[in-house]
Amino acid sequence: MPKLVIVESPAKAKTIGKYLGRGYKVTASMGHVRDLPASQLGIDIENGYKPKYITIKGKQKLVKELKAEAKKCDGVLLATDPDREGEAISWHLANLLGLDPEAPNRVTFDEITKKGVQEGMAHPRAIDMDLFNAQQARRELDRLVGYKLSPFLWRKVRRGLSAGRVQSVTVRLIRDRELEIEQFQPEEYWNLDAHLKTEEGGAFTARLAARADGAKAAVKTKAEADAILASLEGKPYAVTKVDKGKRRRAPAPPFITSTLQQDASRAFGFSATRTMRAAQTLYEGVDIQDHGTVGLITYMRTDSLRVSDEAVAAAKQFIGGRWGEAYVNKTPRRWKSRSATAAQDAHEAIRPSMPELTPDEVERSISGDTARLYRLIWSRFMASQMADCLMDTVSVTVGAGDWLFRASGYTVTFDGFTALYEESTDDKQKKETALPPLAAGQPLRLVRLSADQKFTQPPPLYTEAALIHALEENGIGRPSTYAPTISTIIDRGYVEKENKKLRTTPLGQAVNQVMLEEFPDIVDPTFSAEMEKKLDVVESGRADWVSTVDEFYQGFAKSLEKAEKDMEGKKVKVADIPTDEICEKCGRPMVIKSGRYGKFVACSGFPECRNAHPLVKDTGGLCPLCGGHMLLRKSAKGRVYYGCGNYPNCNFMTWDEPVTERCPRCGSTLFKRKGSLICLKEGCGFEKPAEKKT
């Protein structure tokens, strides 16, 4: 009789089944099979926070089938993911199937390759109760906050609202950034640049930096700038000092969950959810030509920067063969993980499971998000094992009258890891460039002086990448929670994303204000970070999960009781967004409101006037069929598409985005599709590459 191996997904089951072969039957639980009930709290607070777990709706048939399979097989092995959630799924499966949780029936795979599966199967263990209890504590904390707080928000703000422990503090971070921007007072300053040439014709630009006595030059007004320009009139320019040096630039470490989400956001515009979906596919296994079904990366939920010696050796061998031995890093690199717990550090950093399998080879079999993400993960890991980039640096001081100008630059003498990969960044500042040969005492010719007025800038709105970085810096949540947290606050209508920027909605602002006033601990980043640390202590086995939950709940219950008294008889009004549109029925202004199905336009005279219509956005493009305005719309699942404004008389719709540029052949609107601009006018067929944004 075969042994039954239970994993979460059919894709993972297929890959692992191939490696195990006969003697094993691999099946999938399709994620969690039990949870707290949706219709009630499901936690007995008075009796040690005892949870009431039930089979998830729709999973009864699957559970029955798993029980039948378990009876027919010679033992059961639980092979769910190697993290808190995976441990919880295994614990629930053990309870449903009547398995002893202390028996060695739990196996984990850090990578789903032949070697990784064999390694995991060779080391079965008991279910890690500390890991499970940390998940159980987190689940109860989130349920207590959501179940107790949501009805309060229904009564005080709007029916149908919900609240979450991590989501609430995340909304606060976004709102705090908006307020910081709104309250920012720009300060004027001026940059004075000398555009210079050497006698040999070499050109460079130096910026005013200091007075001749070394005092820093800070030019705040046009009057100050004009005075300095006047004092420099007719003055000779000469190099007063040249500092030369060498700089080494080391590569970034391999990805962990948070840095993968950030880099994929910057490089491809991926949401955290989209990144994790593609990473899950790469981990669970895809069909690769000449290799069969294989998991291409190690486990993608990790805080650890550790890399196995075997993977390092494989990477270095490949690097030496591809780029030459000079590109191989000769000394071992060790990176210190920011906050990996013992359980999280059991996994390696995210890396290709077979470093020798190049993206070019993989892309013969896969495409789209998985291919792009694999190339990113492979390149980052391989670069981490390559030699440093070496540069000759030069810093030059130029004197003129009573002022000193400075310029700096570098020349790459050995590209090292940058031959393959450079980390994406949100910083768009101008990079240093090479300077012409310069020596102290060398005279220079002034081409022109320029004075540019500038103003200090507020911090930018959060992008997903920047928000994930802020969550990580503040210790809020864990990398595995970032993607669902961001998705949840957008889905609930508290935050919206436009041009990759995250903004709170009027609804989000109203809820955030209530939370700040009545539940300051819940939205306090420091409090949230301390809660995460306490969960880590539970995971390490050094704290009781029930005591941890009770400590939180006692304070939360008091806040809830106080809030009920503070807001007795009060209701918070969610601000409407004004528009220029006038109601054709009563003449009052129309406003944008938010409902449970999204935004819509309604008369400000509601309820006396009930005029309303869906909110649509004119893209500026015209329909290639009838010439009507192309409007941005959303499907029932929230996916953006573009439809003709003359619907239902014209049914034209497309997933391709209209642009302002017109077709040079027929004059119709062009549409953007996968890096190209195309004309959708029947019979035209014009197409050209889209210009890349710089």
Describe the overall structure.
The chain has 694 residues and is of the alpha+beta class. The chain is built from 17 helices and 29 strands. The strands form 9 sheets. It has a 6-stranded antiparallel β-barrel with strand order 8-9-14-13-10-15. A 4-stranded antiparallel sheet has the order 18-19-20-21, with no helix packed on it. A 4-stranded antiparallel sheet has the order 22-23-24-25, with no helix packed on it. A hairpin with an 8-residue loop joins strand 24 (640-644) and strand 25 (653-654). Helix 6 packs across helix 15, helix 8 crosses helix 12 and helix 9 (272-284) crosses helix 14. The longest helix is centred in the first third of the chain and has 28 residues, at 129-156. It is globular, with a radius of gyration of 30 Å. The chain starts with a strand and ends in a 5-residue tail after the last strand. Mean pLDDT is 91; it is low at 340-344.
For the structure shown, list the relevant keywords.
globular; 6-stranded antiparallel barrel; about 700 residues; alpha+beta; 4-stranded antiparallel beta sheet; 17 helices
